[in-house]
Amino acid sequence: MTTQIARTNGSSPTPAEAVFDFDVAIIGAGTAGMSAYREASQYTDSIALIDGGPLGTTCARVGCMPSKLLIAAAEAAHAGSKAPQFGVRYGEPSIDGKAVMSRVRSERDRFVGFVEQAVLGFEKGEVIREYARFEDDHTLRLSSGRKITARSIVIATGSRPSIPQELFSAGERLIVNDDVFNWTDLPGSVAVFGAGVIGLELGQALHRLGVRVRLFARNDNVGPLTDPLVREYAANAFSAEFSAIWHAKTRITREGEGVIVRWGDEPEQQERFDYLIAATGRAPNLDRIGLENTTLRRSVTGVPEYDPLSGRAGQSHIFIAGDAAPDLPLLHEAADEGRLAGENAARFPHSYRRARRAPIGIVFSDPQIAIVGLSYAALMARSERAFVTGEVSFEDQGRARVMGNNKGLLRVYAEHKTGLFLGAEMVGPSAEHIAHLLAWTIQTGMTVEQILQMPFYHPVLEEGVRTAFRTAHHALGFAPNPPMRCIDCGPGA
Predict the structure, then answer these.
(1) Cα dist. 356→353, 373, 376 in Å?
(2) Structural domains of the chain, ranges and CATH numbers in brackets
(3) pLDDT tens, position by position, 84-121
């Protein structure tokens, strides 16, 4: 199907009437690309979904799902270690590395298979299993040499691991998290570089599965945390379980079938590892699609300037979504961005901005980490830092102590003038669930006063959330602080 349209939106010059091969071309068939396709297909059948790489999405193939499979095995291995406090004792776990990785690979392949079936089963449009590069704002050259044109284009090219140059000294012993999920057995030792989401999750999981692990971080970073008190608490909690250096200057050399990592000043320390895992972030796949051949304005990082509320790059007919727009590289954000970009691309030139959902991010470590709404750093960066903080430690929280899972700190932030709940950072038990409750309250625009009118059962972890908001309520000047060490004070207190 071809489309004729008059150009009236202020994008790059085209003839008054142009004929295109497709209404919408989508580069990338990952989470964002698939969402863009499904949304665009509600408005047009003339869609090209283009991807020359392996199908299956970052999440299913090398991200969310295989990492959680590894974490699930690690949790099973670690479960008995907490039993003695209850008067129950188990022997040391026997870990079959080949069986662990066999299940990880098998279930990973199952998830990937579902995604592949979905892409190849799309009924509308055309799935093109090739790579694409821009030749101009409307033209894409495929890896076969064929050219196609599109009225509007969605860039959903995803991301890849980003590796600092100094880590390449490890040679063939350098791997990324993508490689871990293809192991057929667990190694004896690994050095994990990077303490972001990937580094924390993999490092702790491998440690619990009997691998000798040392984690090397920079700038005292612990996951995505920005609140200095929560970050310090998290660093101490993780350091109590496995070896971690939160601000390391290192030297790396290859030696035989392993790699030597040296760190520290006087005396210098060193340790030998089987592998070095680079968990040092991901970079958007934008440097290989010919953006230099377009009229798009790009930032110093190479990312096109775009509106996150519409996905639109400048005033053009080109949209960007998912990890290619690296503000929030999370699956649910990629899906939302894909739907937004797909709708606007298909309806172009009628493109609109949409309100985004409340931000939510989770690290599946133990204790878990969560950030919802505005982070501490984002609030501190505001010209008016008019917010108050409430907090609760889970060390004395009633339900947490009953379960013997009482490590954690939650800090909540509220606007000083209005009491509006703005955001929170947390390390602690069931953060993945508490984060959802907090994100929902932010999205509904609740104040601290309104939150405290909500029901809280006893005894539950959520009573700790109430305590945090009670201290914020006090900081706002509305009420006294709750009594100390009240074990949540019981129902109705």
Answers:
(1) 9, 11, 20
(2) 3-53+129-160+283-347 (3.50.50.60), 165-281 (3.50.50.60), 360-475 (3.30.390.30)
(3) 999 999 888 999 999 999 999 999 999 988 888 888 88
- The DSSP symbol for 304 reads B
Q: Is the pTM of this model over 0.85?
A: yes
**Using one digit for the tens of pLDDT, what is the confidence trace for 370-414?**
999 999 999 999 978 799 999 999 999 999 999 999 999 999 999
Q: Average pLDDT of the chain?
A: 91
Q: Token digits for 118?
A: 């979905």
Helices (DSSP H) in 348-452: which residue ranges?
A: 376-381, 398-403, 431-443, 448-451
Pairing state between β 368-373 and 387-393:
unpaired
**How far apart (Å, rounded) are the C-alpha atoms in residues 250 and 482?**
46
Average pLDDT for 198-212: 97
Q: 328 pLDDT band (50/70/90 cuts)?
A: low
Amino acid identity, position 119: V
Region of residue 219 (left: phi > 0; alpha: psi -120 to 50; beta: else):
left
Q: Tokens 């068939």 sit at which residue?
A: 29
Determine the distance from the C-alpha atom of residue 316 to the mean position of all C-alpha atoms in its chain, rounded to a whole number. 28
Q: What is the pLDDT of residues 5-23, one digit of tens each?
A: 333 333 444 444 578 999 9
For 344, the enclosing helix (H) or strand (E) is helix 331-347
- Packing angle, helices 64-78 and 197-208, rounded to 10: 40
Nearest C-alpha neighbor of 27 from the set 128, 114, 121, 137: 128
* 3-class DSSP state of 22: strand
Q: Is the dihedral of CA 231, 422, 429, 366 positive or negative?
A: negative
Q: Could you give the CA distance from residue 127 to residue 472 in angstroms, rounded to a whole number? A: 53
Alpha helices in 168-246 (DSSP H): 177-180, 197-208, 228-239
In the DSSP assignment, the letter for residue 168 is G
